């Protein structure tokens, strides 16, 4: 993780995982994830050199072709006109599906529902999922509270610039790859 994101996760009274927001246990390491990172091969987007993910961060820091690749991406994004007239759905604030209180960010909605609606068994549409291209605005979750805990403990755009045309598995893969590349 980049320093800024990691500091955000460590701010609460109880530090949380940067991915799933579970409370961190001091001294525990994700050995299975470390092993996966050591054994997964990738290719540098700059020089096309093959290496293990565990070596990618140090390589990216010294690869001038990778640095150029990143700068080209930054230039491409900043050239997009600011007055784009396309209509984008609101994916930043959500109403509570139980009481219709509005303007919660994703974490705020999770906390609000845990605090005020944890015993409400009414089947509701998840407003977060409904705002996504892959979400079904008519699907009513049988257990909304469990859905919130499992699917919305963190926001993708905290870790990666979201491509909402990509599917959810692709976005998770991007989150993992970018967290490994950041210094």
Strand order of the largest sheet: 1-2
- Gap from first CA to last CA: 7 Å
Please summarize the sheet with the most strands: 2 strands, antiparallel
The strand count comes to 4
> What is the C-alpha radius of gyration, as a whole number of Å?
19 Å
Q: Kindly report the average pLDDT value.
A: 78
Residues in helices, as a percent range: 40-55%
Provide a quick synopsis of the model:
This protein has eight helices and four strands.
List keywords for this structure.
single chain, mainly alpha, two-stranded antiparallel ribbon, two-stranded antiparallel sheet, 8 helices, 4 strands, ligase activity, Di19_Zn-bd, EC 2.3.2.27
Give structural notes.
Keywords: Ligase, Transferase, Ubl conjugation pathway. One of its GO terms (molecular function) is ubiquitin protein ligase activity. Its EC number is 2.3.2.27. Pfam families: zf-Di19, zf_C2HC_14. There is one protein chain. This protein has about 180 residues and is mainly alpha-helical. Among the domains are: about 35-75, no CATH class; about 95-160, no CATH class. Helix content is about 45%, strand content about 5%. It has helices spanning about 5-10, 30-40, 55-60, 65-80, 105-115, 125-130, 145-150, 170-180, and strands spanning about 40-45, 50, 125, 140. The chain has a two-stranded antiparallel sheet. Strands 3-4 form a two-stranded antiparallel ribbon. A hairpin with a 6-residue loop joins strand 1 and strand 2.
């Amino acid at each position: 993780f980049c320093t800024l994101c990691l500091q955000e996760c460590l701010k609460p009274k109880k530090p949380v995982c940067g991915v799933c927001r579970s409370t961190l246990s001091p001294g525990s390491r994700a050995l299975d994830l470390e092993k996966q990172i050591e054994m997964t091969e990738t290719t540098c987007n700059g020089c096309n050199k093959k290496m293990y993910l565990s070596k990618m961060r140090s390589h990216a820091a010294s690869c001038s072709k990778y640095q150029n690749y990143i700068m080209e991406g930054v230039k491409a994004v900043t050239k997009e006109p600011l007055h784009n007239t396309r209509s984008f759905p609101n994916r930043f604030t959500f109403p509570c599906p139980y009481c219709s209180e509005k303007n919660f960010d994703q974490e705020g909605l999770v906390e609000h529902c845990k605090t005020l609606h944890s015993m409400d068994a009414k089947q509701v549409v998840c407003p977060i999922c409904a705002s996504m291209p892959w979400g079904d605005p008519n699907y009513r979750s049988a257990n909304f509270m469990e859905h919130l805990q499992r699917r919305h403990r963190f926001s993708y755009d905290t870790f990666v610039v979201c491509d909402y045309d990509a599917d959810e598995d692709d976005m998770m893969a991007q989150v993992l790859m970018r967290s490994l590349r950041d210094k």
